[in-house]
Amino acid sequence: MEHKIVNFNQELCSNISNKLHKQLLKVALKSLENQFDIPSDNLEKFKSDNNITDEQFCDLMEMYISLINVFIRCNKKEEFEEVLVTHGYPSSLIENIPLKFDNKEAILSSMKDTKLAINKLDYKIDISLQSKILNKVILPSVIFTLTYADNKDVTFSADSSTFHKLS
Prior knowledge:
This protein folds into 2 domains: 101 residues, no CATH class; 53 residues, no CATH class. A 3-stranded antiparallel sheet has the order 1-2-3. It is built from 8 helices and 3 strands. The chain is an alpha+beta fold and 167 residues long. Strand 2 and strand 3 form a beta hairpin. Pfam families: COMM_domain.
């Protein structure tokens, strides 16, 4: 199985301590659980204390989120470590990753997001009137409205060819 993972950035990670790596990994894990909102002032303080720019922080979060996704998809510790080594992660960092395969089920169950449960899915076919004045053909589309458990609505549309690919 091919794993999508961000390659290790030696330049970015060389001046980051193991303690900071663990903190960033925890932030990434919490963000995947949708349980963790970092107040902007705390984030700014964290970045200034550790001398990290916005771009570096985003790159690090991308790296850790992809690392967690690979961890979830790997069946064995050896497979996980092999993928990381292949993508340039140093053994010193791999040894200090606090993700353990014995508690993988706990991580998976905590990542299930109950806030995103869908209560209702409505759709309608939009056949707009075509006008010779516009000099273009307007293709029909399907408009979806999802209502989540927290009663928030999300509306999006798909053209007819995309709609047929969904089935």
